[in-house]
């Protein structure tokens, strides 16, 4: 079947519709134009803002060091130059893959020749928590606006969840003078980085003034004694403790935003299942946090919620849409700013991986480390060592001794 | 060619160093990107533009074209 420009043997003018205007969706659009695509392009974004960057929401934006304009990935002028039709503040409600149309929540139905799904993820919440003023999540600019107004000196913030978002926000709130308690059911914070790095991060967070309660789950959030709506809350823990709070941030992970794809027939087992270049079905690609791409070096599908991954995938999708090919960088990369400490990871830390310190410089509070699975390097980590970690990546993550440097064995499952 | 790095935006990912190692380096203490030379030769333009495109913080800007 011709991949583009034709249908039933007849040439049709092309119309690429991208649903989602975060780093992934915008990235596809920009890369398409960069590669010379000059036909119709439409962007659909649920939020009523120019496309913006999310990582600073828990850091520089929350403290006020950056304003919304500094987060824009494409301001109004850049968007104009993109030459795309932009539907802002609109959500897709469904798609008919046979008819090649996507429906929006204003009743509009957009015909497409190619659809790119980049709708991202939505924060998970605790049951019954949303009814309380002061119980918040952090995903959008509005969320960050609302949270920053609550983080006044002396105010009590309880963070539920010890992942990247929870810990980063805890650090930021400490720097703003808040009383911070972080609660996580895992044995350490940042459990994905293993026991050693997680413990260290938790110790540093506690030393900076936070109360870090690991191995503890939240059972419920209740209204405190203050007047309703005052934001006086009580967080009930599974050990019987009741934590008073002015604000409760729930940061327990996210779910792919695929509710609107229910009748499309797409494989939605974990986000949208795609092959190694982001194809989900004829005429449909997906990328970014919402997409689980087949990863040849690992022989399985991976859905990664990393900022860098979204941009990488976007460029691969754009190339594929135009009949070209760009290889995804199969060494994932992410960073997290833990207050003054920057953690950078290249590679994929599998749950069974074992961590070993590689080089340490205690004087500068700096080290690098290596994660191994069955003796093979699967990831490298830098603690305050962003420069050293790149060298380590070059040395250790490209050779045949690494999990990522080895092609999949013959007969490995085919993408699908 | 003219290149500007927004140090406030830079997250120290080092992707620019991977793409254009003769143009970019990182500060030791925080990984923030720095230019290796005051003047960047015009023949580095394709690599610099690629670096600007892959930068996860959109912190690199180049003069037109």
TrEMBL record, chain A:
User: GO MF annotations for this entry?
Assistant: oxidoreductase activity, acting on NAD(P)H
- Cofactor or coenzyme needed: FAD
The residues that cross the membrane are none
**Which domain of life does the UniProt lineage start with?**
Bacteria
An annotated GO cellular component: cytoplasm
| Reductase C-terminal domain ranges (all copies) | 333-395
Q: Which UniProt keywords apply?
A: FAD, Flavoprotein, Oxidoreductase
| Location of the FAD/NAD(P)-binding domain | 15-314
Alphabetical list of Pfam families matching this protein: Pyr_redox_2, Reductase_C
What is the protein name given in its UniProt record? NAD(P)/FAD-dependent oxidoreductase
Query: Whose protein is this, by species?
Result: Streptomyces diacarni
UniProtKB/TrEMBL annotation, chain B:
The GO molecular function terms of this record are: 3 iron, 4 sulfur cluster binding; electron transfer activity; iron ion binding
Source domain of life is Bacteria
Which keywords, in A-to-Z order, does the entry hold? 3Fe-4S, Electron transport, Iron, Iron-sulfur, Metal-binding, Transport
Q: Where is the 4Fe-4S ferredoxin-type domain?
A: 1-29
Task: Give a yes or no for keyword Thylakoid in this entry.
Answer: no
Position of the signal peptide: none
In terms of Pfam families, this protein maps to: Fer4_13
Q: Cofactor(s) for this protein?
A: [3Fe-4S] cluster
Q: What task does this protein carry out? A: Ferredoxins are iron-sulfur proteins that transfer electrons in a wide variety of metabolic reactions.
> What protein does this entry describe?
Ferredoxin
